[in-house]
Amino acid sequence: MAKREIPADERYVHFITFSVYRRRRLLNLDVPKKIVLGNLNIQLHQFKARCAGFVIMPNHVHALIWMPKASDAEVFIGNWKRLSSFQCREWYQEHAPNYFQEFGQGEHFWNARYYDFPVTTERKLRQKLDYIHWNPVKAELVKRTIDYRWSSARWYAQRRSVGVPITWIECQ
């Protein structure tokens, strides 16, 4: 099956994944997760972007983001990672300096690269949304998707606030 070419100016949902450097569990604690979520909020506002879903796992992040200009994705993700990295490191140094004893602080907070998959159909959007919502269950962090506080699953199931505005995005 041939891969669909996406024109540079076509708008679509970005399925974004990025990981903590060396898969360390630096997002195990609630405050670093709040920092990552807060910085997602900032980027959504600055870029006039919309979030269809997300999950913040102990060592990686998934998000479904739509932007008015698809070409802004790299800057959006770069800003999100840079700001959250700085703030998380600052928080750890001030409030939990012993947290790094087991595995060291490391040179970086996030891996330099990220994964950005274009979601162009509603079927694929639902598939990616299910995938991110089931991540905490598969990782045995919770028994049900709606029990994980750091994902958009509660918004979809119960319309409960999840820290960022969630918008269902219609794909062409």
Structure description:
By secondary structure, the chain is of the alpha+beta class. The chain has one domain: 2-Layer Sandwich (Alpha-Beta Plaits). Helix content is 37%, strand content 15%. The chain is built from four helices and four strands; from the N terminus they run βαββαβαα. A four-stranded antiparallel beta sheet has the order 2-3-1-4, with helices on both faces. Strand 2 and strand 3 form a beta hairpin. Helix 1 (30-47) packs antiparallel against helix 2 (73-95). The chain starts with 12 loop residues before the first strand and ends in a 14-residue tail after the last helix.
Structure described in brief:
This protein has about 170 residues and is an alpha+beta fold. Helix content is about 35%, strand content about 15%.
What is the count of helical runs? 4
Measured distance between first and last alpha carbons: 20 Å
Give Rg in angstroms: 16 Å
Number of DSSP-assigned strands: 4
Summarize the amount of helix as a percent range: 25-40%
At the first level of CATH, the class is Alpha Beta
CATH H level: which superfamily? Answer: Transposase IS200-like
Structural class by secondary-structure content: alpha+beta
Question: What are its keywords?
Answer:
globular, alpha+beta, 172 residues, Alpha-Beta Plaits
